[in-house]
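Q: Can someone sanity-check these two? First one:
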Amino acid sequence: MPLRCISPAGQELAFQHDTESWAALRARNLAEKHLRLPCCESPVVLKQSRLGTRFFAHRRRDACTSVPESQEHLHLKDIVARAATRAGWFVTTEGRGTSSTGQEWVADVLCSREGTSRSVAFEIQWTRQSLEDTFQRQQRYQASGIRALWLMRQWDVPVSKETPAFAVRIGEGSGAEVLMPSGIWPANNVLHLMGRAEPRWGQRVALDAFTAGALRGRLRFAPAVGHVVPARVIGAPTTCWKCKRPTCLLLGLELLLDRAYPGFGNAYVELNAIGSDPQRGAQWLSVHLAAEALKANGVGAVKARYSKTRGETYLSNGCVHCDVLQGSFFDHDVIDDQTSLFEADVPVEPWLAESSDEPAVLNRWWFDPTTSS
């Protein structure tokens, strides 16, 4: 059930027709039988699905080996194609090509525009596809100089800059939306299946708006990395095990990303993530968190110290009075008493994003709802 067919005058695209022109094309084809499908040159009949999608179908399938498409798959292709056309791109569906390694591909929606160096392919994956197959198909597009973006019905989609992939859903009234990954997914750049429960998602964007925005550069990966963002400094009061006086532990930073990137959500980075390289972490903290502000809130020096108990050097809190190391096991004892001490502007260094226990908190996609075309 493609959206494209061919005629003696060139190609016909179903999504370019309104009710009146579609009826006129159907009448002409009944009279002249001039339309053919590119897959097998079969005569064409013009139809409309229960979701309201206009499409071309085989008059007779005979020996054609093309795989039939579901009405949902066809409907999503139609939405993407129409949105890309309105955004000023030249659009074709079922676009074919061959990679530099000789592998053939067929793109659901292929978009190109004068002045752009690379075409963009939108792939609708309504049936489940393994991650391995997704990566292989993405590499095929890359070898063809094509930027490809995946819209998938399944839960387990890649979360990576190299393979942009998102969940897509059809709602009531045949409207569709794209679901962006939130910051709760585990590492290894994969949004995993979460049992039988539907995962918690981040941004939800109407598919037509998402398509136009992606083509206009409004889709960005890890937007905060390399930029300065506001952060809440999170600490908790405790009592020094040695001098028995009150002190405060620095537990981590809450990066207030929503202020700069609406809809992205905030991210919490624990002290042990900052201290995956103790010396670098200590240097970063000393530059961006004023010692005076920490001391005013009862926090002692946060620096790389050697622990006999752990047999290693790690980024640790010291007592604000006697500077003795406050072991990391104290952090768990005071976790329920954590509070925001003050705010500071901090740069999100690439190493900070990568050293986090959950890199997906920062390394994920964000759709910019504010940037104009």
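And here is the second, same format, sequence then tokens:
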Amino acid sequence: MAVIKQGILGGGSGSIGGVVMSAWKGRAILKAKPISVANPQTDGQVAQRTSFKAVAQLGALLLTSYVQKICNVVSGNITGYNFFVSQNKTAYNSLGVLVPANLKIGGGKIPLPSAIVSVIKGASNILTLSFTEYSGAPALRGDDNSYSIAICPTTGDVWVAPGDELRSDHVTQLSLITPGSDLSGELQVYCGMCFKSSNGRDVTVSTSLTSYDITF
């Protein structure tokens, strides 16, 4: 049964025939009612669910440290979490294994530095990234805050810079946020830089991560 308030343009809920009425972000919307509800298990659908679940879990892990601080700025009329998942829908393959080249961070308009120079591990498994700027680049973004990311696909560990360092420092420290880690030996870690303007209105352009061999 459907309930209509203030006429069809005033919103409502429920369904009439093949039409479902609901509200989204304060707007009344109509959509076709699905003919049937099923739980398909074809190989392609299972693979899609597996990859989606993996990126959704990563987004949840990064929710407070990265997604809310970076993705919320550029997500438009969707949540930062949904933006992150959509931006990284190909970041995991059909087996749920990370494809680092497809993992994207950023998504704004601020130019990136030219390159990461080195990645060094310090005490408590904190990574220190040093980077350079393009020759002759204006110091307009020196007060940007760093929210750079690193991830180790082998162990699933993730690091995030908490935004304490300024871009003008040319160095940023990334803190390990995966609990209970026991890192040892030489591991492949993928790192990427992401900065947010001091006024909080923009972030750096979308970029993928670069591989580094780090000894723990």
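A (reply): Looked at the second one. The chain has a mean pLDDT of 87. The chain has three helices and 15 strands.
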